[in-house]
User: Which sequence fits this backbone?
């Protein structure tokens, strides 16, 4: 057989690339349509409960029905960054010890870009930005989850995210939806062994929230889960470069703070203005017992977060197990406050819920009851001004 014949045979026998890609394109379009439907329904859910809370439960909606009315608590702090950058000195709270250094730059920078693009107010831009990232998160989470728990499991995962019991944070100008999106992409790339790209996205996680550096532990767990002693030096360089990129976002922010106010750790030191300081796990859990109902509940959610780490470890996902363990333990050493918000907006945690729900119908029903009840409570509390939502 001549070379031309061999080439011709190879060309003839090779499947048409377009025919291979076509079903995948259709599946992605279906996933995108489902993500859009889930996103719209999530928005409607929040808005309906918002109005009912105002009519029936004395909600304090500052501008009823508006995007500005959603922007409260941390959203207002991010607004100060969008409008005027980082403070030169503490000047807020009754003691004058608060500044916006505790709020990392990635999200307000994105909101500032949205504000410039569509010409809206800062509170509107923050809320719109968080909702745009929610839509992107649902779409990305569906795609990623399908690689682990199948097609229908991926759709269920999208619903678990869209109707999270703490969905309010994705609609109110907070970082949760951006962080969830980055986490999903980072683990997706890590699973594909795209070391440099995953490290870069991990760096963006660290520029979004302090706990983003926990991805470094996931990276190391994935790196050392296989024997790589005999791989090429070029691959080892990629491993090292990706690992160095993970803390780059946090390092850049620390560098900025050092030259801006002379304290690279200002984001940590200023947390005393919110009553948070480093402590032991035992002290944090003991303190939770004095919070009546919410303290033990917050502690329980922390233990569920650790349980999800065990779930992933049992299934050989050492990267997710390491990440969840660090992501729960580190904030828990400060306080149990806001723990549900931290845990329920972690991608590996919701993946574990979706995986369990896909296998057990009873677990799915239990989750739906809990999620709908808690979402209603949280949205109502948000507009009533209850501080435990912060």
Assistant:
């Amino acid at each position: 057989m001549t070379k031309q014949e061999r080439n011709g045979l190879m060309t003839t026998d090779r499947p048409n690339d377009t025919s291979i890609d076509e079903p995948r394109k259709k599946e992605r379009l279906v996933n995108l349509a489902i993500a859009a439907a889930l996103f719209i329904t999530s928005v409607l859910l929040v808005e309906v409960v918002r109005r009912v809370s105002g009519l029936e439960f004395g909600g304090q909606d500052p501008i009823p029905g508006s995007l500005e009315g959603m922007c409260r608590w941390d959203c207002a702090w991010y607004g100060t960054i969008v409008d005027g950058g980082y403070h030169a000195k503490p000047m807020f709270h009754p003691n004058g010890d608060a500044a916006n250094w505790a709020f990392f730059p990635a999200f307000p920078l994105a909101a500032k870009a949205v504000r410039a693009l569509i010409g809206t107010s800062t509170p509107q831009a923050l809320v719109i930005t968080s909702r745009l990232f929610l839509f992107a998160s649902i779409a990305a989470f569906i795609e990623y989850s399908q690689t682990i728990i199948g097609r229908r499991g991926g759709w269920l995962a999208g619903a678990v995210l869209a109707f999270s019991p703490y969905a309010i944070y994705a609609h109110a100008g907070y970082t949760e939806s951006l962080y969830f999106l980055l986490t999903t992409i980072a683990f997706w790339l890590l699973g594909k062994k795209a070391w440099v790209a995953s490290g870069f996205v991990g760096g963006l996680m660290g520029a979004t929230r302090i706990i983003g550096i926990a991805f470094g532990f996931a990276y190391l767990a994935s790196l050392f889960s296989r024997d790589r002693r005999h791989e090429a030096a070029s691959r080892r360089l990629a491993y090292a470069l990706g690992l160095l990129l993970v803390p780059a976002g946090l390092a850049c922010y620390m560098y900025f703070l050092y030259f801006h106010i002379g304290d690279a750790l200002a984001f940590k030191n200023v947390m005393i203005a919110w009553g948070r300081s480093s402590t032991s796990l035992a002290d944090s859990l003991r303190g939770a017992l004095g919070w009546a109902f919410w303290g033990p509940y917050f502690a329980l959610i922390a233990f569920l977060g650790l349980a999800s780490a065990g779930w992933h470890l049992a299934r050989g996902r050492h990267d997710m197990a390491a990440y969840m363990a660090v992501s729960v333990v580190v904030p828990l050493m400060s306080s149990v406050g806001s723990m549900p918000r931290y845990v329920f907006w972690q991608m590996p945690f919701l993946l574990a819920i979706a995986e369990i729900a896909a296998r057990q119908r009873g677990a799915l029903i239990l989750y739906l009851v809990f999620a709908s009840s808690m979402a209603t409570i949280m949205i109502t509390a948000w507009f009533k001004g209850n501080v435990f939502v912060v």
